[in-house]
Design goal:
Oligomer: heterodimer
Helix content of chain A: 55-70%
Number of domains of chain A: 1
Strand content of chain A: under 5%
CATH class of chain A: Mainly Alpha
Number of strands of chain B: 0
Shape of chain A: elongated
Number of helices of chain B: 13
Strand content of chain B: under 5%
Structural class of chain B: mainly alpha
CATH architecture of chain A: Orthogonal Bundle
Number of helices of chain A: 11
CATH topology of chain A: MetI-like fold
CATH superfamily of chain A: MetI-like
Distance between the termini of chain A: 31 Å
Distance between the termini of chain B: 9 Å
Chain lengths: ~300, ~325
């Protein structure tokens, strides 16, 4: 108890208030932060593993993911390490193939959402009230639509397709990123070096990219990881409802859905894809927890 | 001073209403962008042009979009949600009983999860940095990232298939005693709790740890206040704002979470209705459901903000 109340507010875990600047300037602290805890290592390994699978999984697959085999919903065996699905297809190959969609789509969407959100956030922070106010109002409106509800409305209007899924995730998760980027940038605009750059007569683009963005890097990257997790959950949730990636393609969520009939027997065809999603998202979470950024906002 | 509280509250409520208006615009015009229109879809590809035109006139689709929006919004304000395309029934009567079911599910989940999460958060903040805190941290970190359908399918596998404690994928309508109630609600509520308890506990911990590091808590400890009292009497009141925010955010996550959970457990609530509506492309129904969910979200967020305002004397004097 008393340890946590030592004066001087020991741990600057809060990356806002320009403290990232502080951490970059002091080498001792940087070294301390760079130490990897066991959980972070596990997280990093899981993330690296899934990135590898997403990139090279297709070539590793022992069978053609859509080739029909023999037994239906069989258990673990030497020929089919993770069993077969409801049509007798090899589950391992289907997971290796499906990971591409889950990881790839979520990564694209997360990067787009974060780029758009940070761009708009910087714009709002550097422009006057007449840009900031309407933009923030619009974002408030977008953020008050739960992302799954936005997703359902969009799918019902436009039908489900891969580009739409990406747009949907970007629309759903840009607002959160905007808010974080804007509050970070607002704090930075008060600092001397930004004021100096302004007085020097630098343009807004220069200030945003050269002066401010490098100092917002760490919290924004953490946020990117968090958005990635949420988007994976959203996309696999939509696929699980049958409204996400459409056949013949299948992401991990679709795999869970199509094999749900095997649940009663505990078939690996339904457990393994679900576990795959779980390990992916938990891995990312463990990894970004290392950066010590607090999780702000649930979405 | 009282006046300024009222003006602050009034401004917050006004902002909420404005946001709701913007949401209604978004919800309406996303579906108005639809290629083809609802009449075409209701009749299918092989309908005669005359049939489509007639239905379009009957549904009011021949009017400009802005006029339709005004009509729709006017209807919403009077409690008339329009007509479902799928079965030509007024949406109000379709939604009615299901709304009660969904609120029931959300209410029970909130009753179970909020006290649990606050306790976890407080315990882990009091032990910040120790082994218990680290264990809780890893546990909540792990569980917060697990998709609902994994939790739900595992729960069904363990409790319904192997242990036979509850019925698997059917929801009992007739509830005659506490045991039936427990059987029907245990799995859906448990699944929802899993996801939001972790979130809420983490945010509660963060808010409290922030307070516990401040000088006034150290002062209280130095003058001999016990650790429990220091947390509950000194730190907690100052963390009410962020905690209320965390609770509201997590509960609003229920809005999305129920979509999956209601579908898996075949629970007759609004979210399931909405998913069915998406499958049959029943736009008026989807719009109505979306507005209900957004409304609930805004109410929660506004309540949290009001809590923050009323619990913070500094905000009150703005």
């Amino acid at each position: 108890m008393t340890r946590s109340v030592t004066p001087g507010r020991a741990a600057p875990v809060l990356p806002v208030d320009g403290k990232t600047l502080d951490t970059q300037l002091s080498p001792a602290r940087t070294r301390r932060r760079a130490r990897w805890s066991p959980t972070a290592i596990i997280g990093g390994l899981l993330v690296a593993f899934w990135l590898f699978i997403a990139l090279f999984g297709v070539w590793l697959a022992p069978y053609d993911p859509s080739a029909l085999g023999g037994a239906v919903l069989s258990g673990y065996s030497a020929a089919h390490p993770l069993g077969t699905d409801y049509l007798g297809r090899d589950v391992l190959s289907r997971i290796l193939d499906g990971a591409r969609f889950t990881v790839g789509l979520a990564l694209i969407a997360a990067v787009l959402a974060c780029a758009l959100g940070s761009g708009l956030g910087l714009l709002a922070a550097l422009s006057g009230r007449w840009v900031d106010e309407p933009l923030s109002r619009l974002i408030d409106a977008l953020i008050s639509m739960p992302s799954k509800i936005t997703a359902l409305v969009m799918v019902s209007a436009f039908g489900s397709s891969v580009p739409l899924l990406i747009v949907m995730a970007v629309v759903g998760y840009t607002p959160g990123c905007y808010r974080i980027a804007r509050s970070l940038a607002m704090n930075l605009t008060e600092l001397e070096y930004v004021q100096v750059a302004r007085t020097r007569g630098e343009g807004r683009l220069y200030i945003a990219v050269v002066e401010m963005l490098p100092n917002m890097r760490l919290p924004l990257l953490t946020d990117l990881g968090l958005r990635f997790v949420y988007i994976v959950l959203l996309l696999s949730g939509m696929s699980f409802l049958g409204l996400g990636v459409q056949p013949p393609n299948a992401d991990l969520g679709s795999l869970v859905r199509e094999n749900i009939g095997g649940l009663a027997d505990g078939a690996p065809a339904v457990l393994m894809p679900a576990l795959a999603i779980g390990t992916l998202t938990v891995g990312v979470n463990l990894l970004i927890d290392r950066f010590g950024a607090r999780r702000r906002g649930a979405r | 001073m009282d006046l300024s509280v009222f003006s602050l509250i009034a401004r917050r409520l006004g902002g909420g209403l404005l946001t709701l208006f913007l949401v209604s615009l978004l919800v309406f015009f996303v579906s108005a962008l639809l290629p083809g229109d609802a009449a075409q879809q209701a009749l299918g590809q092989f309908a005669l042009p005359e049939q489509v035109a007639a239905l379009r006139a009957q549904m009011g689709l021949d009017q400009p979009a802005l006029l339709r929006y005004v009509h729709w919004l006017g209807g919403l304000l009077q409690g008339d949600l329009g007509q479902s395309l799928a079965n030509q029934m007024p949406i109000t009567s379709v939604i009615g009983s299901r709304l009660v079911n969904s609120l029931m599910l959300a209410g029970v989940t909130a009753l179970v999860s909020v006290p649990l999460a606050l306790t976890l958060g407080i315990v882990s903040a009091m032990n910040a940095g120790r082994r218990l805190d680290r264990a809780l941290n890893i546990f909540t970190l792990g569980i917060v990232a697990v998709p609902e359908f994994l939790v739900a399918t595992l729960a069904v596998l363990v409790f319904a298939v192997h242990l036979h404690w509850t019925s698997a994928l059917s929801f009992a309508q007739d509830i005659s005693g506490p045991l039936d109630f427990l059987r029907a609600y245990a799995l859906p509520v448990g699944t929802l709790c899993c996801v939001i308890v972790a979130q809420m506990a983490r945010m509660t911990r963060a808010a409290l740890v922030d307070q516990l590091q401040s000088p006034y808590v150290e002062m209280a400890r130095l003058k001999g206040v016990g650790p429990v009292r220091a947390v509950l009497r000194h730190a907690l009141p100052n963390a009410v704002g962020p905690i209320a925010n965390a609770v509201a955010l997590s509960l609003s996550y229920l809005m999305g979470g129920v979509v999956i959970v209601e579908t898996i457990f075949n629970y007759p609530g609004i979210a399931q209705l909405m998913v069915d509506g998406v499958a049959s492309r029943d736009l008026p129904l989807i719009q109505a459901c979306a507005m209900l969910f957004c409304c609930a979200y805004l109410v929660l967020m506004t309540l949290a903000d009001l809590c923050a305002i009323l619990s913070n004397p500094r905000l009150r004097t703005l």
